Amino acid sequence: MRRWLTALVPTVLTMAALAACAPTPDPARPAFWQVTGPQGQKGWLLGTIHALPRPAAWRSPAIDTALGQANVVAVEIANLDDASAMATLFGKLEHSPNLPPLSARVDPALRVALAGLLAEAHMTEADFATTETWSAALRLARAGDSAGDSSNGVDRAVLHAARGKQVVELEGAGVQLGLFDKMPEAEQRAMLNAVLRDSGQDETADLAAAWRKGDFAAIEAETRRGMLAEPALRETLFTGRNKDWTDQLALRLGKGERVFVAVGAAHMAGPDGVAAMLAARGFAVTRLQ
């Protein structure tokens, strides 16, 4: 679940500097939907991926047509290129005094896995002395996933393609990080335990392959295991966010805005995904690719 955690949240930890020399993009045909309202409203849903080992050739005639027709582009976080602001925000939230050692915040059976992941990341427990558990989970998840590069993320590419259009945030960095910061400690520890249980597993290639093929059977299956199988974490990280985004999108579509939505592909999956929630609101959701 480690890789899928970074797939669900494009935080500062998945934001790297743009590569100086981009390699040839890999072909991709990500899942893409059209949304039509009862009064003729129209929008589109693109499932993105926040980091990839290599760039992806994700654009298609259907996506380009939709981008041309859209007058609003909705993303999770709009200022992905402002790494300094993101790092400052992250730093304000992640520290607290008088925290127990990190090894005391994980299941005893996972302490060996913690030691291994710390060594892999060239870190020690002392580096997390004042780091809240949610932040430790995100940092260790990212440290164990060096194959994904956010400069190849499709969220950023959509924002670049949308220059000149109105861009709106469905969440924003402050809200997103606040979700973690406000978690009860028990949920934070469950998240850290889930990261450690999956340490040593290479999920990056699987996630990238599923996204490139638009394989939503594989994507949905992954959203039902690990930390997302725990009801409280699922509500915080997945279902609750999808409900909030659906509320916002339904309001914008109801006003006649032509909204091109680009959010992490996992958020489109299954009956708790944005696509299904919009359909439940009376919108016709048709997969175009």
Structure, described:
With 289 residues, this protein is α/β, with parallel strands linked by helices. It has one domain. The strands form two sheets. The protein has a six-stranded mixed beta sheet with strand order 6-5-7-3-2-8, sandwiched between helices. Strand 2 and strand 3 form a beta hairpin. The longest helix is centred in the last third of the chain and has 24 residues. The chain is globular. The two termini are 26 Å apart. About 2% of the residues have low confidence.
Strand content: 5-15%
Mean pLDDT: 88
Number of helices: 12
Briefly note the structural class of the backbone: alpha/beta
Question: What strand order characterises the main sheet?
Answer: 6-5-7-3-2-8
Secondary structure: number of strands: 8
Helix content: 40-55%
Low-confidence stretches: 15-20
Q: Tell me about the largest β-sheet.
A: 6 strands, mixed
Query: Shape, please?
Result: globular
Distance between the termini: 26 Å
Radius of gyration: 19 Å
| Whole-number total of structural domains | 1
Q: What is the N-to-C succession of helices and strands? A: HEEEEHEHHHHEHHHHHEHE
Task: Characterize this entry briefly.
The protein has 289 residues and is of the alpha/beta class. The chain contains twelve helices and eight strands. The chain has one domain (2-12, 26-267, 281-287).
